[in-house]
Amino acid sequence: MKAHAITKDAGPYREPVTIQDLRQRTVVTAEEAFGVLGIGRALGYRSIREGTWPTRVLRLGRVIRIPTGELLAVLGVERTESDEAQ
Asked: Are 55 and 67 within 8 A, CB to CB?
């Protein structure tokens, strides 16, 4: 039986998103946002569905993205001037 390599994008074995990652990206997936906030998938998706998620939610068909600037604000992390220029 072959062993499978675990990569950064290998499903539940993804590396956690860091504050530095958030500063470099415009949006993150819903599941990355859940990880940043330390909540599970069930609670996160329920919060989005019920309209209690603390940021705007961008829906593109079945794809959900969360704006990182708003996520940083929820975390109380200030964006730098270089972040805002991107």
From this structure: yes
Locate all alpha helices (DSSP H) within 1-86, ordered by sequence: 19-24, 30-37, 41-50, 68-75, 81-85
The pLDDT tens digits of the residues spanning 30-59 come to: 999 999 999 999 999 999 999 999 999 999
For the chain, give every domain's residue range. Answer: 16-79
Which amino acid is residue 76, in one-letter code?
G
Mean pLDDT across the chain: 83
Crossing angle for the helix pair 30-37 and 68-75, to the nearest 10 degrees? 10
Q: How confident is the model at residue 17, as a pLDDT?
A: 86
